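Q: Protein A?
A:
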Amino acid sequence: MQVLRTVFFLLVLGNLLLFAWGQGYLGTTGGVGEAERLAAQIEPDKLHIAGKGIPKENAEAPPREDCRALAGLEPEAAGRLAELLAGRDAQLKIGQRPLDEPKSWWVHIPPLPNSAQADKKAAELSRLGIKDFYVVREGGPNQYAISLGLYKSEESANNYLNALLKKGVKSARIQVREAPGDKSVVEIRGTPQQLVNALAELPPEFSGASRADCAAARP
C-alpha cells in the first residue's frame, strides 16, 4: 500500500510540475506562456495593405498628344482630307476651320476728302516720278484713295513704302487685306506615331497643302 501511495503522489507531482512548466511559472523556457502569446498578437486594427493608395513609381505616363495643321486647301478638299484621315485612324481628333490669314498688303494713300483733292495728290505723285498708281473712284470706304501697289508679302510692301519715302511721299500707308473663308485648315491631333501613320503618303490632290500652326487646344 505504501508503494502505491508513493507512485500516486509522484504522478500527481509530475503533472503539477508539467502544468507549471507549460504555463511559464517556472521561469523562461523554450516556449512562451499564455500572457506572452496574448501580448505578442498583431493588433488587427493597425493592419494595412502595403502599397494601397500609393502611386506606382514606374506607372506609365499618358501618351503625349501632338498636333499637325495643313492649310491652303479649298473647303471641299479639306473636307475630303478630314474624312480620309478619320478613316485611317478613328481615334484621331480632326477639326476644320477657315484660313483667316493675310492675303495681300496694300500700299496706298488713304482716302482723300473728294475727287478734286485726289486728282491734286495724283498730280503730285506724277511730279515725283511715280507712275504706277491709280485713284479709287468706286463708292465705298476706299473711295478717293490712291492705290500704289498690292504685294503678296509684308516685306515687299515695306520695301516699296521705304522707296516712296525716299522720293518724298510721306502719306503712303500699308493696309493688310484678308480673304477669310476661301481656304481651310485641317487640324489633326493624336500621338506622334498616330500622326506619322495618318499623314503618310497622302493622295496627290492634297500635295498643295502647307504646314500651319495649330490653334490653341481647348482645356
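Q: Protein B?
A:
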Amino acid sequence: MLIVFLGAPGAGKGTQAKSLSEKKGLTHLATGDMLRAEVAVESELGMKARSFMDRGDLVPDDVMIGMISGRLKDTVSGGLLLDGFPRTVAQAEALDEALEAAGAGVDRAIYFEVSEEELIRRLAGRSTCPDCQRAYHDTFNPPATADGCDDCGTTLLRREDDRPEAVRNRLVVYETQTTPVLDHYRTAGKLVSVDGEQSIDAVQTVLAAAVE
C-alpha cells in the first residue's frame, strides 16, 4: 500500500499519518521532519533548504525529489505513507516515475480540507520543546507555565515558518503551487477528500474507510 497525504500546512497530516502508519504497518516519511533534521545537522541539503523554509517558500523540486528518491528504494516494498510530498506537479510526476521503476504506484492520495482561517489559528500558536520535542499550542494545548516545557522546563521555541507572516506566505505558496497536484491525482482517480476540521477520531474513521 502506498498512500500520499496532501493538504496545507496545519491541516493535520502529521497527526493522522502517525496513527494510520502504525495501524497499517506503513513506513511514514514526513518530508518536513526530514528537512528540519538536515537543517539541524547543517548538511549541504539542509543549508540549501533553510532559507526557503524560514520564508515559508517551497524547497526547490530538485532538492525534494533527490531526498525522497533516495529513501524510496529502501521503503516502497513494505508499504509507505508520504506526508508532505509531493507538493508540486513536477514532484508528483517524478514520484510516479520512481515508483513505476520499482513496480509500484500511488494507491490513494488523501486531501485534508481545512479553511484558511482555521489553518492560521492552528499554525500561529504552535511551539515545541527543543530538548524533549514535546509539542504545545497556545489555544489547544498550552503549557502550564508560559513559554516553559511542562516536562523539563526548557524554554519553548516557535518555528520560523510558524510566525504569522510566514504562515500567510506558506498558505499563498500552497494555493498557487500545490493545489494543481490535486488535479494530478483526481485525473488518475486516486484522490479522496477528507474534512480536516472534524475531530481527530472522526478523521481517522474516514481515513480507515478510504484506504480499505
